[in-house]
């Protein structure tokens, strides 16, 4: 008996009850009108106004008496509702009791497994006894899952030889089979658990299935597959980026970077993904180049200046400023006139971070030709950052009385340091 059928039954009963009441009400109104019409000419109508309520009630009862089918339906609906609600209450109580019992068992087994694992790892004379007890206790699926979770918690905090011992115990107890079943399950949440367990235990038997999930429509499964591939890579931890077709979300990028730092993974040469057809992968690669201040990327970044995607061009200009890529300045000067506003702004910000005296003429031209205040401010900052030559030119422009221009007040504030 599903909840949907229950709700449909209740709805039908309420509908029938409502229709019955409405019909009864309409009948009683008609009877009342007729009664009032008859009673108008009699003096008793004025003496007994309270009889209208009792008449209406009596008429409603008569309506039910003359409609046995409606009454029967209402009885069935009421009985059905009571039985359904009782059954639901029993199911809820039983399920709650089962969950409480499972929690108690889980708490007991966590403590027991923790002690046995400690004996197996650090007490040589108790090792085999601990193994036999673990093998005996872990006879059910629930118990094995608790044991796997406990072993993963230990492997997170342990390294080297001890971690290999845990992995050996995991294989010896046959727990790999459980993880593989979850990895190949048709349920995505089971896939997530299986991928995580295999990754922590450094088992590569399901790599093909994990790779298939890299482009899943389920974002959680996709992220877990990415994390698993980072852990299970033999060399380049980001090799999976070559296979990624779905967008790499900002959250996924942050997670991957955090893993890189937390596990001290080898940092690959991120410029290899500048040519990726996946725009988000290119953006991530540029971000990592800036984060790790990777050198030898000048030629590849200059090629990105011609990218059809404006966000990629914007990010490439930003990276040039953050890594101090002077060889990119002439190309940015050439790209400036045809760029959109936000990219023009990023180019000028890059010039503030990589100040060069020989580009003062270009920056002066920006002041003269641009009307947007933000662009003028960044151009002024870039000129000031070149040092004495730029500051002298700005003072000269500020004090020029031949023609007033709106950027003169901007220069005054920049030189006074009031807009920083």
Question: What report would you give on this structure?
Answer:
The chain is mainly alpha-helical. The protein has four domains: 3-98; 178-267, no CATH class; 269-354, Leucine-rich Repeat Variant (Alpha Horseshoe); 357-420, no CATH class. Helices cover 72% and strands 0% of the residues. The protein contains 21 helices and no strands. The protein has helices at residues 3-39, 44-47, 51-65, 68-122, 127-137, 141-157, 161-172, 175-183, 188-200, 207-212, 219-232, 250-262, 279-291, 298-304, 310-322, 329-335, 341-353, 360-369, 373-385, 388-399, 407-416. Helix 9 (188-200) packs parallel to helix 11 (219-232). The radius of gyration is 39 Å and the shape is flat. The two termini are 69 Å apart.
């Amino acid at each position: 008996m599903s909840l949907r059928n229950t709700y449909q039954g209740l709805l039908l009963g309420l509908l029938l009850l409502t229709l019955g009441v409405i019909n009864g009400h309409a009948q009683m109104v008609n009877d009342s009108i007729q009664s009032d019409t008859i009673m108008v000419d009699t003096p008793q109508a004025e003496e007994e106004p309270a009889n209208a309520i009792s008449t209406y009630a009596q008429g409603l009862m008569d309506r039910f008496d003359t409609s046995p089918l409606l009454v029967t339906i209402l009885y069935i609906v009421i009985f059905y509702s009571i039985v359904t609600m009782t059954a639901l209450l029993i199911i809820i109580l039983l399920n709650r009791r089962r969950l409480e019992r499972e929690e108690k068992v889980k708490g007991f087994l966590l403590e027991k497994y923790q002690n046995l694992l400690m004996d197996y790892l650090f007490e040589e004379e108790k090792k085999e006894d601990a193994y036999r007890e673990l093998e005996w206790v872990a006879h059910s699926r629930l118990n094995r899952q608790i044991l796997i979770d406990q072993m993963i918690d230990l492997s997170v905090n342990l390294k080297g030889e001890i971690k290999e011992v845990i992995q050996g115990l995991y294989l010896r107890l046959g727990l790999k089979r459980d993880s593989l079943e979850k990895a190949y399950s048709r349920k995505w949440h089971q896939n997530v658990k299986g991928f995580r367990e295999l990754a922590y235990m450094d088992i590569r038997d399901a790599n093909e299935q994990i790779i298939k999930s890299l482009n899943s429509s389920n974002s959680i499964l996709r992220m877990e597959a990415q994390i698993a591939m980072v852990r299970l890579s033999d060399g380049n931890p980001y090799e999976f980026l070559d296979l990624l077709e779905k967008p790499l979300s900002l959250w996924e990028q942050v997670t991957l970077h955090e893993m890189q730092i937390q596990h001290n993974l080898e940092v690959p040469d991120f410029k290899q993904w500048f040519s990726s057809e996946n725009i988000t992968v290119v953006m991530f690669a540029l971000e990592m180049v800036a984060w790790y201040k990777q050198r030898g990327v000048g030629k590849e970044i200059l090629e990105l200046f011609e990218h059809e995607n404006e966000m990629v061009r914007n990010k490439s200009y930003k990276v040039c400023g953050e890594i101090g890529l002077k060889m990119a300045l002439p190309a940015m000067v050439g790209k400036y006139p045809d760029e959109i506003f936000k990219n023009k702004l990023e180019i000028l910000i890059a010039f503030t971070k990589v100040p060069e005296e020989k580009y003062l003429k270009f920056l002066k031209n920006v002041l003269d030709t641009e009307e947007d205040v933000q662009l003028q401010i960044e151009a002024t900052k870039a000129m000031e950052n070149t040092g004495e030559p730029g500051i002298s030119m700005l003072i000269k422009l500020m004090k020029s009385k031949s023609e007033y221009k709106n950027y003169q007040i901007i220069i005054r504030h920049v030189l006074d340091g009031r807009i920083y």
